[in-house]
Amino acid sequence: MHDVSHGEDAPQVDNRLLKIIGIVVLIVAVLLVIWGILSRRHSEHKLADWTQDQSTQTVSVVQPKSEPASNALVLPGNVQALNSAPIYARTNGYVSKWYVDIGAHVADGQVLATIDAPEVEQQLVAARADLETARANQNLSQTTATRWSTLLQKDAVSKQESDEKQGDLAAKKALTNAAAANVGRLNALTGFTRIEAPFAGTITSRSTQIGQLVTAGSAADQPLFTVSDVSRMRIYVRVPQAYSAEVHPGLHVALTLPEYPGRSFDAVLTRTAGAVDQQSGSVLVELQAPNPDGALKPGAYAQAKFPITGTSGSVVIPSSAVLYRSDGTLVAVAGPGNKVQLHPIKIGRDSGDTLEVLAGLSQNDRVIDSPPDAIANGDPVKIAPAQKTGATDKPNAGAGGNAKQ
C-alpha cells in the first residue's frame, strides 16, 4: 500500500515542477520584452539627444566692455587735395612730348605736354581757304548790290531785282561769318595741342607716353595728367548722428597719420553737410588743414580727434558681432537657457574692428561673436569654452577666434 501511494504523488510533483518552470519562463520572457522595450526607448532618446546636440550651433561669446567717458572723439578721415583736376586731351592727335612727371610742382598755365594734330592743322588750312572764298563772294555780292542800288535810283532796274541782290549780299555775309567761326574753332583746337596746368599744384599722376594716340572727349580714357593743389588739404570725416550736434564750423580738430607717429596736425572744421546719411547714420563734415611741407598727401588715411565728450553708459563690442538686416542693426545675445535673443542696438562711433553701442546692450550680456546670418530668436546654442593663452588675457576678450569648436 505504501509503494502505491508514493507512485501516485510523483506525477503531482512533476506537474507542479512543470508549472513553476513555465511560470519562470514566462516571467523571464516578459522581463526580456520589457528590457527590450526600455532599451529601444533609451536608444531612441539617446539618438534624439545626439541629433539635437549635433544640430545645436556652437558659438563663442564676448562680454561688452564699458566705454569710459573721454574728452575726445576719434574718427577715421580721408585726406583730399584742396583742388584736383584730371587733364584730358581736347583735340585728336599724338603726344609729341611731355615735360613733367609725377611729383613735379607746376605753375598756373605751365605747359605739361604737346600734341601733334596733323588732321586739325589740315582742317584749319581748308577752313581758311573756305573763308577766303566766302569773303571773295561777299565782296562780289557787295559790288553787285551797290551797282543795282544805283541803277534802282535811276529807275533802270526793278525794285524786286535790287532786293534780290541785297538778299544775296546778306546770304554771302552769313556764309563768311560761318567760315570765320569755323576757322576760330579750329584755331582753338590747335591751341589745345598745348596741355597746360589749370592752376599751380603738384602732378600726382601721368599716364601719357610719346607717340600715344589721344582722342578728345573720351571719358573712358585715363587722364593724361592729374594736377592737385596740395598747399591746403581737405579732410572728410563721417560723424555719428549722436555727436553731430556738438560739431560746428570753426572747431579745431587734431589729425594724426600712421606714417608720422607722435606728430599732430591742426585742422579746422569748415563745413558740414547738415544731413544724416540714411545708410551710415552719420553726418559728413569737411576739415581743412595747411600743408606747407607736403606731409599730408591726397588719398591718405587719417584719424581726426574731435574735442567732444563721450557718451556715458555706452559699451564696445567687436564689429563682427553686428547683424545688419532689413529690420535694423541687431546683435545676438545668449540668454537664459542658452536661447538666442536678438537685440536692436544704436551704434555710436565706428573704430574699424570695434563699435560703440549707445543703447541696446549692457556689460552683463553675452554677445555672440560672428553669428550665423540665419540665426533667429529662440535658437538653442552651445557656448564654446574660451581657450586660455596666458595670464595676460583680457577678461572681456571673449571666445572669439580662440574658441574650440
SSE blueprint:
Elements (H helix, E strand, L loop, with lengths): L1 H54 L1 E6 L2 E2 L6 E15 L5 E6 L6 E2 L4 E6 L1 H36 L5 H33 L2 E3 L4 E6 L6 E2 L10 E16 H4 L7 E5 L8 E12 L5 E9 L10 E6 L8 E4 L3 E4 L2 E7 L5 E5 L1 E5 L3 E6 L7 E3 L11 E3 L22
Parallel strand pairs: 1-22
Antiparallel strand pairs: 1-21, 2-15, 3-10, 3-14, 4-6, 4-9, 5-8, 6-7, 8-10, 10-13, 11-12, 11-14, 12-13, 15-20, 16-17, 17-18, 19-20
How large a portion of the residues is in β-strands, by DSSP E?
Answer: 25-35%
Largest sheet: 6 strands, antiparallel, barrel
Q: Name the overall outline.
A: elongated
Rg, nearest Å:
45 Å
SS element count, helices: 4
Catalogue the unreliable spans.
389-405
Main CATH class of the domain at 59-68 and 312-402: Mainly Beta
CATH topology descriptor of the domain at 59-68 and 312-402: conserved putative lor/sdh protein from methanococcus maripaludis s2 fold
> Which range best describes the helical content: under 10%, 10-25%, 25-40%, 40-55%, 55-70% or over 70%?
25-40%
Order of helix and strand elements from N to C terminus: HEEEEEEHHEEEEHEEEEEEEEEEEE
Q: Count of DSSP E strands? A: 22
Based on the coordinates given, report the CATH architecture of the domain at 59-68 and 312-402: Beta Barrel
Strand order of the largest sheet: 3-10-13-12-11-14
What is the residue-mean pLDDT, rounded to a whole number? 82
- Structure class: alpha+beta
